[in-house]
Design brief:
The protein has about 110 residues and is mainly alpha-helical. It has 3 helices and no strands. The longest helix has about 45 residues, at about 5-45.
């Protein structure tokens, strides 16, 4: 088999993996943006928010989301995707670590997903 054919086979196998990762990242992004809208009736009833307070909360959430995306876009452009997404993964693990320790101290065996 020639070198060109080997390279094409390797590239072809990775394309679907990349497509699947992009699909799941887009799905999580979409769900993350819309979760407050889905939870609005429950949060309004349990916490007692007025519609104006709920509007303030969603406005602040969307503004923080936009600023975070702008910063992370700049960061990815400057440092590259490998470093950027590695640091993002590390930040996610470090965010979960205290929750896992608290559950372990309480004797709970429930897994913490987020």
């Amino acid at each position: 088999m020639s070198e060109i054919t080997k390279d094409k086979i390797k590239i072809g196998n990775h394309r679907w993996t990349i497509c699947a990762l992009l699909f799941f990242a887009t799905t999580i992004n979409y769900l993350d943006r819309n979760i407050l809208g889905i939870l609005a009736p429950t949060l309004t009833k349990e916490i007692g928010w007025t519609p104006i307070e709920y509007g303030y909360i969603t406005t602040v959430f969307q503004a923080a989301y936009a600023l975070g995306l702008a910063f992370f876009g700049w960061f990815i452009d400057k440092y590259g995707t490998k470093i950027g997404y590695s640091l993002l993964l590390l930040a996610g693990v470090l965010r979960q670590w205290p929750m896992r320790l608290q559950l372990q101290c309480l004797g709970s065996e429930l897994p913490v997903v987020f």
